[in-house]
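pasting for ref
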Amino acid sequence: MNSTFSDIYSKIKKFIKEREWEKFHNPKDMAEAIVIEASELLELFLWKDPAAIQKMLKEKQYETEIREEVADILIYTLQLVDLMGYDIKEIVEEKMKKNERKYPVAKAKGNSRKYTNL
């Protein structure tokens, strides 16, 4: 992990260790936690049209809630990456290379279709 992720992850690991929560953390539960937190983020946008979302994003209460859910998702994701022994930089770079092949600029620019429909 680069220094930013390393610093953040050191704080996360310290927090977990102080509470003796390591025994509860395994890849399955971390994956479930990511999905649950992502659902909580999505719930903030539920039933809102684009205009309502733009208005909502200007309200401090929603900004705080969104930031907290995003942080939870990232925290659990970093824990999963660590549990699996993955290098986050490496896996993101590999995926970006794959995405570049699947979504070449000439076909994907300004287009929201899935790569199978380009």
